[in-house]
Amino acid sequence: MNRITVYERANFEGLSREFTCDVPDLHELDFGNCIASLKVVGQPWIAYTSPKYEGEPYAFEEGEYPSVERPNSFSALRLVHHDLGDPQITLYERPNFQGACKVVTEETNLAYGYFNDRVASHVVQRGVWLLYQHPGRGGWHCLAWPGERLADYKPELNFQSRLSHLRPLQPGRPL
């Protein structure tokens, strides 16, 4: 069973709620903007800073999080239903899937290679990916979903060819 248990204070203290399905607006359940720690069992969950899965996304894979990066700021929760095994994304040097390309199947720090700060578009074949602006999972980040074809980073992501690190979300352990 996939589930997320959220707590109003750090270290799993205070009021808590457990969810097994998507929650588009935590405010409707009197638990909006109050999550400070959480536990995930099974598949990853995405927490959003605005209702209806809008705002900044934060991914939480299976495990315990005694504190979260943005406490008291999550307004929606979404379970990742996609198959996360055998991930693959193709990165392109120029917009509209043009120029040199690179197929990535695992966490990669682009800072050490030709594609650092040179990616302008991508196609996600499989898995859900976290894309980071800076090496070492740093800076602004976004999610890339299976089947996504993002033709130009500049207007759509505001990355402006600044992708330096990416990693696929890891599946939860079978129960």
Automatic annotation (TrEMBL):
Keywords: Repeat. SMART domains: XTALbg. InterPro entries: Beta/Gamma-Crystallin (IPR050252), Beta/gamma_crystallin (IPR001064), G_crystallin-like (IPR011024). The keyword Transferase does not apply. It holds the Pfam family Crystall. One of its GO terms (molecular function) is structural constituent of eye lens. SUPFAM superfamilies: gamma-Crystallin-like. The keyword Repeat applies. One of its GO terms (biological process) is lens development in camera-type eye. Residues 2-42, 43-81, 87-126 form the Beta/gamma crystallin 'Greek key' domain. Belongs to the beta/gamma-crystallin family. This is EDSP protein.
